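Escalation from tier 1.

The customer reports that the assembly of two entities below gives different structure tokens on two consecutive runs. Tier 1 could not reproduce it. I'm attaching the input and our single run for tier 2 to review.
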Amino acid sequence: MHNHISGMNLSVDRTYDKALLFIMLLMLAFGALMIYSSTAVITPLLEKKKITEFYYFKRHLFTMALGTAAMLIVYRLKTSFLKKISAPLLVFSFCLLLLVFLPYIGVTAGGARRWIRLWPTTFQPSELVKLAMVIFLAKYMSAADYSTEHYSSFVKPVLIMALFQAAFLKQPDFGATMSLGLLTFGMLFISGMRLRYLASVSALAIPIIYKLVMEPYRLRRITSFLDPWKDPQGSGFQLIQSFISIGSGGITGLGLGESKQKLSFLPASHTDFIFCLVGEELGLIGAALVIALFLILFLRGITIANRRKDSFSYYLAYGLTMMISMQAMINFAVVTGMVPTKGLPLPFMSYGGSALLVNMAAIGLLLRISKGDDDVPAEDNSNIMAKKIARRNIYNRKGHSR
Amino acid sequence: MNRRRIVILNTVIVFGFFAVFFRLTDLMVFNHAIYAERAKSQQVKAEDIQVRRGNIYDRKGRAFAVNLELESLYCDSKEVVVDKDGLQRLSGILGMDAKVIQAKFKQGKRFTWINRKLAQDTAAQIKKLKIDGIGFVPEAKRYYPKGILASHVIGMVGRENQPLEGLELKYNKYLSIAGGKVYFARDASGKQLSSGVDMEEAKGNDLLLTLDEALQYIVEKELDKAMAQWKSVAASAIMMDPFTGEILALANRPAYDLNDTGRANQNAIRNRVITDIYEPGSTFKVIIGTAALEEKLYNLDSKFDCSRGAIEVGGKVIRDAHRHGMLTFKEVIQKSSNVGSIMIGMKLGKERLYRYAKLYGFGDETGIDMPGEVSGWIRKPDSWSATSIGAIPIGQEVAVTPLQILRAYSAIANGGSLVQPHLVSEIRTPEGRTIFSFQGETKRVLTEKTAKVFKDILKTVVEVGGTATEAAVEGNQVAGKTGTAQLIDHRTGRYSKDRFISSFVGFVPADNPKIAMIVVIYEPKGQIYGGIVAGPVFRDIANQALSYMNVPMDEDYRNDLLLVSK
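Tier 1 run:
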């Protein structure tokens, strides 16, 4: 009986989700193309730094190769191993995060210490933190002693989150602070955690609000998205340039490689604001295509999650999907001026090694989950099947009663 | 796991994607025009370029002013990277001190001119150095193929091609039309990225002159000779078609090289023929002569007793150069007797004298199409002094320009009409469309008969017994008049004893004039009389000019001349 059911599972799920892989590859290709478009214009200043037409493109390809390796490694990990390392990974990522503050190892750019030196490149630990947090929460929420009715079950992950957030704020990295918060709360939310508990943590936001009020320039920077034209050369500059990029693209865009805004008008046109470049060069059609790809990725992700009946796999798949989708959505919202400006890359498309590596690893995990899990005890599986059949019966009965 | 919560969160996320899409539609479709406009305004820099000025051609299409395409070198201090060797070589090519160049590099500005209007090959040499942060902008430099020739006519432009003198100034709005713009793509720092994304090519209109290069050359060559011969301070000449007012040649000495204007001083730039006034002396006797004939006060044989060689007017004695004796009306003009002229002037009276002078346009600008023309002056009769009636008939107490005198004599030449002197006959667009064509109006000032009679008198001036036998041209009869005017000594306020302006004005061939010309020699040394100083210059120019213009010799006149000389 058991064997029979597992056999059925095999026939349905024994292969990974090809659509998901295909979408990711499409995004990677699209992203690489746009990065090339953005960075192929070489000014004498760049030439002086020995930066050539293919400099960023090649580096990006190299990161993609590393990402593929990470994806393949992660794909082979067993669920039991993942559960085992969930807590050590979180500790490890926290250590990496602390390294940022060490001299020589920590790298400061744009007034923020967010990177650690990994000769010859740098790594942004906050990206790994998100992944570690998702794995940790999946393990934590799927544990037998986890109860959505107990405040103690709620406090522990929130404290861990707050610890990370404190480190992020010290860097400072408001983008990471916000996305980790949303991710943690999102996962606790779907686990069914009491809303009262979730609401209680808003009290933790008080120090942040206090900081904003005490340092008006921060508040100004945050609220500038509401009216960027108030300070077009200062806090509103990035957003105005972003609008000009996107807006000037129109429906069909200026044509691939034809962006004018990338000529140093639009800061970060190959990293956080690459979506603007898509809009400018490929128009609404190109931009809508990118949004559609992320929407499909999201739908694929939750489909994979729904197929998995053990809660760890479910939470993990859902968490990873949310991690990617949320980052994409925040990125879209930032560049279109719907939320305050945050330094968040667009997954799979922006230039930037750490995020790409982590996101590709996340896809590796999703593919792993989509393939089905031979690690899960068979009875567990049958249990779920039984529940599923029972639920279907309930629905059927409901239908009859109408 | 909470199914309801999952559905809520999924809905929120999907809704979020759609919200982004709607936001994009708002930005990219409904507000596209606004952002496209903003994009253009920051990405494209419209720079006024030095408009390619129109060319200037003489009446036969020979170029007097053209443009050279040159390259101007600039640097971007923020981008400039140069090693010592490169700087040294750049300094060598430009012929500029390395320190000066270095200073420009270090100004900290995004755009600084290093050296402008470099020749193409110089620019090519510099480009080979491959220095970062320097670049070239194409610029046009005005070039005058004829150099010094007709410098006062053509005028000059400054370094920014701004008009400074002559036709360049007068016709600037045609030569340099508005709207020459080059659009550069630029980056956020304002640095120019490409030259001429879009060029609003603008070339000014071309001028076609009435001037003739060959005649201009002849005139200038002869003026140079005269300057050398008479060691004069200055010399001027204008040659005009007496029927149409077309200026065939116009020259002054000193002059300047249009391609080397830096060395031109104010004295050389002066276009004396229209900007300088002088007391004309005897050439002004055209007024009393023609006025008396028009008013029928005398006939050609009316007698004037000039035997005393002097006449007293208002307590002032005015003398003839030589004592003449009894003179006919004709001889008064021929021999340029001051005494006889004053007698005619007194008979004519103040009012008529003034009226005729004004009729000829004295005291008013001729309206020639050149900048800086002055009107000269002649006082109204009610402000004349007691001696004025003795001074004005012989060309004193009036201020004229050589051009005004030439125009008056052209009226005699053409049968009594005042012409409009002009230099530009046509203005054409670069495509060859004519947008202006000179339409002159002539004004009759004399009856044809008076003009004819006076012309005959003027013929005798160059004949035996006249004041300008030296002005006679072989094979063609000249009609003309000499002028010898004393300059006022500014220290004493009296007429100077040794500073004169000698002139000759006339036309040839007298009965069918092809050219009317005035020659003015300022302060000649050794000789003073117009007939002796300016007459030969007129003759030499006229000889060559008629030959160039293929004007046939008049056999009858030649024979007459031979008879006379026998």
